[in-house]
Design goal:
The structure is a homotrimer. By secondary structure, chain A is α+β, with helices and mostly antiparallel strands. Helices cover 23% and strands 35% of the residues of chain A.
Chain lengths: 132, 132, 132
Protein backbone atom coordinates (compact mmCIF):
# COMPACT_ATOMS: atom_id res chain seq x y z
CA UNK A 1 0.00 0.00 0.00
CA UNK A 2 1.18 3.48 -0.86
CA UNK A 3 0.72 5.84 2.15
CA UNK A 4 -1.59 8.72 1.32
CA UNK A 5 -2.74 12.11 2.48
CA UNK A 6 -6.34 13.31 2.16
CA UNK A 7 -7.17 16.98 1.93
CA UNK A 8 -10.06 19.30 1.11
CA UNK A 9 -9.78 22.32 -1.19
CA UNK A 10 -12.06 25.32 -0.79
CA UNK A 11 -11.69 27.29 -4.01
CA UNK A 12 -11.58 26.53 -7.74
CA UNK A 13 -7.88 27.40 -7.95
CA UNK A 14 -5.95 27.04 -4.71
CA UNK A 15 -2.42 26.20 -3.62
CA UNK A 16 -2.40 24.38 -0.28
CA UNK A 17 0.82 23.72 1.57
CA UNK A 18 1.25 20.05 2.50
CA UNK A 19 4.88 19.95 3.68
CA UNK A 20 3.89 18.97 7.24
CA UNK A 21 1.52 16.25 6.00
CA UNK A 22 4.27 14.79 3.80
CA UNK A 23 6.73 14.83 6.72
CA UNK A 24 4.22 12.95 8.90
CA UNK A 25 3.59 10.37 6.15
CA UNK A 26 7.36 9.76 6.03
CA UNK A 27 7.92 9.37 9.78
CA UNK A 28 10.14 6.38 10.53
CA UNK A 29 10.76 5.75 6.83
CA UNK A 30 14.21 5.21 5.31
CA UNK A 31 15.13 6.12 1.79
CA UNK A 32 17.03 8.39 -0.56
CA UNK A 33 14.06 10.44 -1.75
CA UNK A 34 10.29 10.83 -1.46
CA UNK A 35 7.88 10.76 -4.40
CA UNK A 36 4.79 12.93 -3.86
CA UNK A 37 2.21 11.97 -6.49
CA UNK A 38 -1.25 13.42 -7.23
CA UNK A 39 -3.67 10.81 -8.69
CA UNK A 40 -6.02 13.45 -10.16
CA UNK A 41 -6.26 15.10 -13.59
CA UNK A 42 -7.30 18.60 -12.48
CA UNK A 43 -4.79 19.01 -9.67
CA UNK A 44 -1.00 18.90 -9.42
CA UNK A 45 1.84 19.54 -7.04
CA UNK A 46 4.77 21.95 -6.95
CA UNK A 47 7.48 23.21 -4.63
CA UNK A 48 7.86 26.90 -3.90
CA UNK A 49 8.12 29.60 -1.26
CA UNK A 50 6.08 29.10 1.90
CA UNK A 51 7.26 32.18 3.83
CA UNK A 52 4.99 34.77 2.16
CA UNK A 53 1.42 33.49 1.46
CA UNK A 54 1.23 36.05 -1.38
CA UNK A 55 3.44 33.75 -3.48
CA UNK A 56 0.75 31.04 -3.49
CA UNK A 57 -1.89 33.62 -4.47
CA UNK A 58 0.40 34.81 -7.30
CA UNK A 59 0.66 31.21 -8.56
CA UNK A 60 -3.12 30.88 -8.59
CA UNK A 61 -3.66 34.04 -10.64
CA UNK A 62 -0.72 33.35 -12.95
CA UNK A 63 -1.89 29.85 -13.86
CA UNK A 64 -5.36 31.21 -14.65
CA UNK A 65 -3.71 33.73 -16.96
CA UNK A 66 -1.17 31.41 -18.64
CA UNK A 67 -4.06 29.10 -19.64
CA UNK A 68 -7.24 31.08 -20.36
CA UNK A 69 -10.78 30.01 -19.47
CA UNK A 70 -12.03 31.28 -22.84
CA UNK A 71 -9.72 29.46 -25.26
CA UNK A 72 -12.50 27.53 -27.04
CA UNK A 73 -12.01 24.17 -25.35
CA UNK A 74 -13.21 20.90 -26.89
CA UNK A 75 -13.55 19.01 -23.59
CA UNK A 76 -16.99 20.04 -22.30
CA UNK A 77 -19.06 18.10 -19.80
CA UNK A 78 -22.49 18.97 -18.50
CA UNK A 79 -22.01 21.10 -15.40
CA UNK A 80 -18.23 21.18 -15.80
CA UNK A 81 -16.01 23.74 -17.42
CA UNK A 82 -12.67 22.33 -16.41
CA UNK A 83 -10.76 21.96 -19.67
CA UNK A 84 -8.14 24.59 -18.70
CA UNK A 85 -7.81 22.92 -15.27
CA UNK A 86 -6.28 19.88 -16.96
CA UNK A 87 -3.58 21.95 -18.68
CA UNK A 88 -2.83 24.01 -15.57
CA UNK A 89 -2.36 20.79 -13.58
CA UNK A 90 0.08 19.38 -16.12
CA UNK A 91 2.10 22.63 -16.13
CA UNK A 92 2.58 22.27 -12.37
CA UNK A 93 3.08 18.49 -12.89
CA UNK A 94 1.59 15.40 -11.25
CA UNK A 95 4.55 14.75 -8.96
CA UNK A 96 7.59 16.14 -7.18
CA UNK A 97 10.54 14.13 -5.86
CA UNK A 98 12.49 15.45 -2.88
CA UNK A 99 15.80 14.02 -1.63
CA UNK A 100 15.84 12.73 1.95
CA UNK A 101 18.69 13.51 4.33
CA UNK A 102 18.71 11.31 7.46
CA UNK A 103 14.98 10.68 7.02
CA UNK A 104 14.01 14.32 6.54
CA UNK A 105 13.00 16.20 3.38
CA UNK A 106 16.11 18.02 2.08
CA UNK A 107 14.11 21.11 1.10
CA UNK A 108 15.76 24.50 0.76
CA UNK A 109 15.27 27.20 3.40
CA UNK A 110 12.31 28.82 1.64
CA UNK A 111 10.77 25.74 0.04
CA UNK A 112 7.44 24.13 0.86
CA UNK A 113 5.43 21.49 -1.01
CA UNK A 114 2.12 22.77 -2.39
CA UNK A 115 -0.88 20.80 -3.57
CA UNK A 116 -2.28 22.69 -6.59
CA UNK A 117 -6.06 22.57 -6.92
CA UNK A 118 -7.45 23.69 -10.27
CA UNK A 119 -11.04 22.36 -10.09
CA UNK A 120 -12.13 22.72 -6.49
CA UNK A 121 -13.66 22.63 -4.08
CA UNK A 122 -13.04 18.88 -3.85
CA UNK A 123 -11.70 16.18 -1.55
CA UNK A 124 -8.32 15.08 -2.87
CA UNK A 125 -5.62 12.45 -2.31
CA UNK A 126 -1.82 12.65 -2.45
CA UNK A 127 0.37 9.51 -2.49
CA UNK A 128 3.71 9.62 -0.63
CA UNK A 129 6.23 6.93 -1.64
CA UNK A 130 9.76 6.54 -0.24
CA UNK A 131 12.39 5.66 -2.86
CA UNK A 132 15.63 3.84 -1.98
CA UNK B 1 19.93 -1.89 -20.23
CA UNK B 2 16.96 0.39 -19.67
CA UNK B 3 13.76 -1.14 -21.16
CA UNK B 4 12.26 1.08 -23.83
CA UNK B 5 9.16 1.70 -25.88
CA UNK B 6 9.25 2.77 -29.53
CA UNK B 7 6.41 4.74 -31.06
CA UNK B 8 5.56 6.75 -34.16
CA UNK B 9 3.87 10.15 -34.12
CA UNK B 10 1.73 11.34 -37.01
CA UNK B 11 1.31 15.06 -36.48
CA UNK B 12 3.53 18.00 -35.51
CA UNK B 13 1.86 18.34 -32.11
CA UNK B 14 0.26 15.17 -30.80
CA UNK B 15 -0.46 13.58 -27.43
CA UNK B 16 -0.31 9.77 -27.65
CA UNK B 17 -1.44 7.59 -24.77
CA UNK B 18 1.22 5.04 -23.75
CA UNK B 19 -0.20 3.71 -20.47
CA UNK B 20 -0.60 0.19 -21.87
CA UNK B 21 2.93 0.19 -23.32
CA UNK B 22 4.37 1.26 -19.96
CA UNK B 23 2.42 -1.46 -18.17
CA UNK B 24 3.78 -4.07 -20.58
CA UNK B 25 7.35 -2.80 -20.12
CA UNK B 26 6.90 -3.23 -16.35
CA UNK B 27 5.49 -6.77 -16.43
CA UNK B 28 7.11 -8.98 -13.79
CA UNK B 29 9.06 -6.04 -12.39
CA UNK B 30 9.22 -5.20 -8.68
CA UNK B 31 9.72 -1.72 -7.33
CA UNK B 32 8.24 1.29 -5.55
CA UNK B 33 7.82 3.49 -8.62
CA UNK B 34 8.37 3.67 -12.36
CA UNK B 35 10.36 6.40 -14.12
CA UNK B 36 9.10 7.15 -17.64
CA UNK B 37 11.77 9.20 -19.43
CA UNK B 38 11.78 10.77 -22.91
CA UNK B 39 15.33 11.03 -24.41
CA UNK B 40 14.32 13.72 -26.94
CA UNK B 41 14.43 17.53 -26.88
CA UNK B 42 11.23 18.23 -28.84
CA UNK B 43 8.98 15.76 -27.05
CA UNK B 44 7.93 15.24 -23.44
CA UNK B 45 5.57 13.23 -21.28
CA UNK B 46 2.66 14.05 -19.00
CA UNK B 47 -0.17 12.39 -17.10
CA UNK B 48 -3.76 13.42 -17.67
CA UNK B 49 -7.29 12.32 -18.49
CA UNK B 50 -7.65 9.43 -20.92
CA UNK B 51 -11.45 9.05 -20.81
CA UNK B 52 -12.34 11.89 -23.21
CA UNK B 53 -9.97 12.17 -26.24
CA UNK B 54 -10.89 15.88 -26.44
CA UNK B 55 -8.63 16.52 -23.44
CA UNK B 56 -5.55 15.47 -25.44
CA UNK B 57 -6.65 17.70 -28.32
CA UNK B 58 -7.07 20.60 -25.87
CA UNK B 59 -3.51 20.03 -24.62
CA UNK B 60 -2.18 20.18 -28.19
CA UNK B 61 -3.88 23.48 -28.98
CA UNK B 62 -3.09 25.00 -25.58
CA UNK B 63 0.63 24.27 -25.79
CA UNK B 64 0.74 25.84 -29.26
CA UNK B 65 -0.90 28.94 -27.77
CA UNK B 66 1.13 29.17 -24.53
CA UNK B 67 4.33 29.19 -26.64
CA UNK B 68 3.82 30.96 -29.97
CA UNK B 69 5.32 29.93 -33.30
CA UNK B 70 6.00 33.59 -34.13
CA UNK B 71 7.97 34.73 -31.07
CA UNK B 72 11.15 35.59 -32.98
CA UNK B 73 13.21 32.52 -32.12
CA UNK B 74 17.02 32.46 -32.30
CA UNK B 75 17.32 28.69 -32.84
CA UNK B 76 16.85 28.27 -36.58
CA UNK B 77 18.02 25.31 -38.63
CA UNK B 78 17.66 24.79 -42.33
CA UNK B 79 14.38 23.00 -42.90
CA UNK B 80 13.44 23.13 -39.24
CA UNK B 81 11.28 25.59 -37.35
CA UNK B 82 11.16 23.80 -34.05
CA UNK B 83 12.36 26.38 -31.53
CA UNK B 84 8.96 26.55 -29.76
CA UNK B 85 8.84 22.72 -29.73
CA UNK B 86 11.75 22.72 -27.28
CA UNK B 87 9.96 25.01 -24.82
CA UNK B 88 6.65 23.15 -25.11
CA UNK B 89 8.46 19.87 -24.36
CA UNK B 90 10.07 21.30 -21.24
CA UNK B 91 6.72 22.67 -20.00
CA UNK B 92 5.29 19.15 -20.18
CA UNK B 93 8.63 17.83 -18.78
CA UNK B 94 11.02 15.05 -19.86
CA UNK B 95 9.78 12.52 -17.31
CA UNK B 96 7.00 11.37 -15.03
CA UNK B 97 7.34 9.08 -12.01
CA UNK B 98 4.40 6.91 -10.97
CA UNK B 99 4.19 4.92 -7.72
CA UNK B 100 3.76 1.16 -8.08
CA UNK B 101 1.28 -0.80 -5.96
CA UNK B 102 1.85 -4.57 -6.05
CA UNK B 103 3.59 -4.22 -9.41
CA UNK B 104 0.94 -2.04 -11.03
CA UNK B 105 0.94 1.69 -11.81
CA UNK B 106 -0.91 3.46 -8.97
CA UNK B 107 -2.61 5.88 -11.37
CA UNK B 108 -5.85 7.63 -10.44
CA UNK B 109 -9.17 6.57 -11.99
CA UNK B 110 -9.01 9.09 -14.84
CA UNK B 111 -5.25 9.20 -15.36
CA UNK B 112 -3.30 7.97 -18.36
CA UNK B 113 0.33 8.53 -19.39
CA UNK B 114 0.73 10.57 -22.58
CA UNK B 115 3.76 10.93 -24.82
CA UNK B 116 3.79 14.56 -26.00
CA UNK B 117 5.08 15.06 -29.54
CA UNK B 118 5.93 18.65 -30.49
CA UNK B 119 7.96 18.12 -33.66
CA UNK B 120 6.40 15.18 -35.49
CA UNK B 121 5.89 13.12 -37.37
CA UNK B 122 8.85 11.14 -36.02
CA UNK B 123 9.83 7.77 -34.58
CA UNK B 124 10.42 8.19 -30.84
CA UNK B 125 11.70 6.29 -27.82
CA UNK B 126 10.55 6.24 -24.19
CA UNK B 127 12.67 4.68 -21.41
CA UNK B 128 10.88 2.84 -18.58
CA UNK B 129 12.92 2.31 -15.41
CA UNK B 130 11.69 0.67 -12.20
CA UNK B 131 12.85 2.38 -8.99
CA UNK B 132 13.15 0.54 -5.66
CA UNK C 1 24.73 13.75 3.06
CA UNK C 2 23.32 14.50 -0.36
CA UNK C 3 26.16 15.33 -2.83
CA UNK C 4 25.79 18.82 -4.23
CA UNK C 5 26.98 21.14 -6.95
CA UNK C 6 27.58 24.86 -6.41
CA UNK C 7 27.32 27.33 -9.26
CA UNK C 8 27.16 31.05 -9.90
CA UNK C 9 24.67 32.70 -12.28
CA UNK C 10 25.46 35.96 -14.03
CA UNK C 11 22.13 37.23 -15.34
CA UNK C 12 18.59 37.58 -14.02
CA UNK C 13 17.31 34.84 -16.33
CA UNK C 14 19.92 32.31 -17.43
CA UNK C 15 20.05 28.66 -18.40
CA UNK C 16 23.38 27.09 -17.43
CA UNK C 17 24.34 23.61 -18.57
CA UNK C 18 25.36 21.34 -15.66
CA UNK C 19 25.51 17.93 -17.36
CA UNK C 20 29.25 17.57 -16.73
CA UNK C 21 28.90 18.62 -13.07
CA UNK C 22 26.15 16.06 -12.55
CA UNK C 23 28.26 13.33 -14.18
CA UNK C 24 31.17 14.17 -11.87
CA UNK C 25 28.89 14.09 -8.79
CA UNK C 26 27.78 10.60 -9.84
CA UNK C 27 31.24 9.14 -10.44
CA UNK C 28 31.57 5.67 -8.89
CA UNK C 29 27.91 5.65 -7.90
CA UNK C 30 25.56 2.74 -8.62
CA UNK C 31 21.85 3.11 -9.14
CA UNK C 32 18.90 3.04 -11.54
CA UNK C 33 18.44 6.79 -11.84
CA UNK C 34 19.72 10.16 -10.65
CA UNK C 35 17.58 12.82 -8.99
CA UNK C 36 18.79 16.37 -9.70
CA UNK C 37 17.04 18.72 -7.24
CA UNK C 38 17.17 22.52 -6.91
CA UNK C 39 16.63 23.71 -3.30
CA UNK C 40 15.67 27.27 -4.35
CA UNK C 41 12.33 28.96 -5.07
CA UNK C 42 13.43 31.24 -7.92
CA UNK C 43 15.41 28.67 -9.90
CA UNK C 44 14.60 25.31 -11.46
CA UNK C 45 16.07 22.64 -13.70
CA UNK C 46 15.17 21.20 -17.09
CA UNK C 47 16.58 18.96 -19.80
CA UNK C 48 16.92 20.20 -23.36
CA UNK C 49 19.19 20.66 -26.35
CA UNK C 50 22.82 21.50 -25.64
CA UNK C 51 24.14 21.49 -29.22
CA UNK C 52 22.97 25.00 -30.22
CA UNK C 53 23.38 27.62 -27.44
CA UNK C 54 20.52 29.57 -29.09
CA UNK C 55 18.06 27.07 -27.62
CA UNK C 56 18.96 28.13 -24.06
CA UNK C 57 18.58 31.79 -25.07
CA UNK C 58 15.15 30.98 -26.53
CA UNK C 59 14.12 29.37 -23.23
CA UNK C 60 15.16 32.49 -21.32
CA UNK C 61 13.12 34.84 -23.50
CA UNK C 62 10.15 32.47 -23.72
CA UNK C 63 9.84 32.07 -19.95
CA UNK C 64 9.93 35.85 -19.51
CA UNK C 65 7.09 36.07 -22.03
CA UNK C 66 4.95 33.17 -20.74
CA UNK C 67 4.95 34.82 -17.28
CA UNK C 68 4.98 38.62 -17.53
CA UNK C 69 6.88 40.98 -15.25
CA UNK C 70 3.89 43.36 -15.23
CA UNK C 71 1.07 41.06 -14.13
CA UNK C 72 0.25 42.93 -10.91
CA UNK C 73 1.98 40.60 -8.45
CA UNK C 74 1.06 40.47 -4.75
CA UNK C 75 4.45 39.19 -3.55
CA UNK C 76 6.55 42.34 -3.23
CA UNK C 77 9.65 42.71 -1.10
CA UNK C 78 11.78 45.80 -0.66
CA UNK C 79 14.44 45.70 -3.34
CA UNK C 80 13.03 42.55 -4.93
CA UNK C 81 10.70 42.16 -7.85
CA UNK C 82 10.88 38.43 -8.20
CA UNK C 83 7.25 37.30 -8.08
CA UNK C 84 7.29 36.04 -11.71
CA UNK C 85 10.60 34.26 -11.02
CA UNK C 86 8.76 31.89 -8.66
CA UNK C 87 6.23 30.89 -11.33
CA UNK C 88 8.88 30.53 -14.05
CA UNK C 89 10.87 28.22 -11.76
CA UNK C 90 7.86 26.01 -11.11
CA UNK C 91 7.09 25.78 -14.85
CA UNK C 92 10.59 24.40 -15.43
CA UNK C 93 10.19 22.33 -12.22
CA UNK C 94 12.39 21.85 -9.13
CA UNK C 95 13.83 18.51 -10.25
CA UNK C 96 14.61 16.16 -13.10
CA UNK C 97 15.21 12.41 -12.84
CA UNK C 98 17.43 10.70 -15.41
CA UNK C 99 17.81 6.92 -15.78
CA UNK C 100 21.33 5.53 -15.32
CA UNK C 101 22.78 2.93 -17.68
CA UNK C 102 25.92 1.23 -16.32
CA UNK C 103 26.56 4.24 -14.09
CA UNK C 104 26.11 6.86 -16.80
CA UNK C 105 23.24 9.27 -17.45
CA UNK C 106 21.01 7.71 -20.14
CA UNK C 107 20.42 11.06 -21.84
CA UNK C 108 19.39 11.28 -25.49
CA UNK C 109 21.87 12.38 -28.16
CA UNK C 110 20.89 16.05 -28.00
CA UNK C 111 19.98 16.30 -24.32
CA UNK C 112 21.80 18.25 -21.63
CA UNK C 113 20.75 19.16 -18.08
CA UNK C 114 20.24 22.90 -17.53
CA UNK C 115 20.06 24.83 -14.28
CA UNK C 116 17.43 27.54 -14.81
CA UNK C 117 18.16 30.84 -13.01
CA UNK C 118 15.24 33.26 -12.79
CA UNK C 119 16.47 35.69 -10.12
CA UNK C 120 20.21 36.05 -10.66
CA UNK C 121 22.94 36.80 -10.37
CA UNK C 122 23.25 34.48 -7.36
CA UNK C 123 25.28 31.59 -5.97
CA UNK C 124 23.15 28.44 -6.20
CA UNK C 125 23.15 24.79 -5.14
CA UNK C 126 21.97 21.65 -6.88
CA UNK C 127 21.54 18.31 -5.05
CA UNK C 128 22.40 15.09 -6.90
CA UNK C 129 20.94 11.89 -5.42
CA UNK C 130 21.33 8.38 -6.85
CA UNK C 131 18.16 6.26 -6.69
CA UNK C 132 18.24 2.44 -6.65
Amino acid sequence: MVPEITLRSERRTQLIEITGDVERALEGVEGSAALIFVPHTTAGVTINENADPAVARDFERALERIVGNDWGWQHIEAGEENAPSHIRSALMSPQVIVPLNAGRLALGTWQGIFFCEFDGPRTRRVLVTPLQ
